[in-house]
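Hello forum,

I keep getting stuck at the same step: I have a sequence, I want structure tokens, and every attempt I make locally crashes halfway through. Rather than fight my setup again tonight, could one of you with a working pipeline run this one for me? It's a single chain of 420 residues.
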Amino acid sequence: MNSRRVMRKTRMLGATGTALVAALGAGACYDFDGARQRCSDEGRCEPNVAACTPVPGEDLPDDAFADTDCDGVDGQADAGLFIDPMDGDDDAGTGTRQAPLRTVGRALAMLRELDGGPRHLFLAGGAYDEAGLVLDVPVSLHGGYAGRSSGWRRAATHVAMFDAGTLGLTVQGLQDAGVLMEYVQVSAATATGPGEPSIAVRMVDSSGVRLRHVTLAAGAGGQGAPGAAGDAGLGGPDGGEGQSGGVGNSDTGQGGTPASITCPDDTQPTGGWGVIGSSGGNPGRDGGTGGPDETGGAGGAGGDAPDAACSGRECVCNPAPGGPGQGGAEGGSGAPGGGGAGLGVLLDGTWAAEQQGEPGGGGTAGFGGGGGGSGGSCNIDNVSVAGGGGSGAGGAGGCGGGGGGGGGGGGASISLLLIG
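Reply #2:
Ran it on my machine without issues. Output:
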């Protein structure tokens, strides 16, 4: 490099007025602009206040991110508290640029104790895990700052992100207080309680609150409460037993009588009748069909009447027993209830579910079982054979259970809830 083109620069770096002087010999040069930028990026330099020209008027945070009062930040540094969720300290911090707080909750508590004072909270970008924050003092929330380690430079990418419970942030009792929220994201968690809402920001008895460059995201509302179980159905009673047969050929047992039942819907799913026993070498009789109206289970078939095997004065006969009646079919399910309708209500400073589903219909009665078939008798010429026993009646079908109650309404998903 030609010595006549050697670059010599002296620049003021920061509010302290420290001068960086480069003494360059022949054939050497130094990238002052690059060094200044690296110093600023790494947070080792104060803002270049010496090169700043103050503009009359109050320096309010704006979209140009301009430091119009030359105090090193976009906004009036001594009119607010600085909060850095990564590099702040709620115990040792005082809210200045050099000693920021860690949480917005701590800053609000300080302002309540002061009963006045700073009107701005300068928020470094990052995650604020603070559930249920209540903004009830007239202070604005300004996101977009880079934090202590980066000199509190401001850009749209440094968003302050609040991600906590099912109610993210409440603004309460601020009437025309000039409150502004900007470069902030508030996310509410998905609700888990029955009918519980998820609300990102709730404003109660407040007006004149402005939102700029703000993202509000509510989670899903909680599922509705389950409906109450319906009443259990009435079980069907057993059918009556058949009578035993007698010793005489004609002394047959009578069939069992089905139990009587009437369900709440006036259905009568009675069982099939039992039948009289057989005699005189006749086969058994088929059992009666179950109700209602003989649409239940079929009766069992009567037993056959075989010939006896006789040898001398001894005969052996094993008549076939009657078959069992078939079981009645199960009752049908009740019709589902209709869905609930409505938008919920505002109650006690929040949203509450009021809609409810319609109850389901009751189940239908089961069908009665068929009566058993009676057994056959033996066929022996010129011999009196004991009479057969009667068959048992079929059991009655059970009554259907009551319909279940309607379920409760599901919770709402609300980004911004305004309650006057």
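The chain is about 5% helix and 20% strand. If your local run keeps crashing, start a new thread with the error log.
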